[in-house]
Amino acid sequence: MSQTTRGRLMILFLGQLLFTASFSVDLTLTGIVGYQLTPDKPLATLPYSLITLVACLTTFGASILMGRLGRRIGFILGAMAGTSSLSPVQLCL
User: Fold this and answer.
1) pLDDT, position 15
2) Alpha-carbon distances, residue 19 vs 12, 37, 59, 73 (angstroms)
3) Portion of the chain with pLDDT greater than 90, in percent
4) What is the DSSP string of 22-35?
5) What's 41's DSSP letter?
6) Could you say which DSSP state residue 17 is in?
7) CB of 44 within 8 A of CB of 38?
8) What is the pLDDT of residue 84?
9) End-to-end CA distance of the chain
């Protein structure tokens, strides 16, 4: 295995490691904070569950869009959709 391949493999490994660690922390903190904030305790993890559900439902449409328009355009549209979802209230915080 060449040095370049080993370097790329290490970067991918570290990226996956950080993603998994942050995912675990995010899931834990979402439940704890949601439990403290909501008056209806069974709904404490509903926001995090909805994020996962919507991601599952939109993946199919995104793959069809990328199949028709290409990956580059698909990712550009996804980035634009994510950026446009910032509300003025979030920008002021």
Assistant:
1) 92
2) 10, 26, 19, 25
3) 25
4) HHHHHHHHHHHHHH
5) G
6) H
7) yes
8) 79
9) 48
Contacts of 45 (CB under 8 A, 6+ apart): 30, 31, 34
pLDDT category at 14 given cuts 50, 70, 90 is very high
pLDDT at 16: 93
Structure tokens at 40: 């209806």
CA distance 13 to 22: 14
Residue 39 token pair: 């008056």
pLDDT of residue 28: 84
Quick one: DSSP state of residue 9? Answer: H
Are the beta carbons of 47 and 35 closer than 8 angstroms? no
What six digits make up the tokens of 51? 């994020």
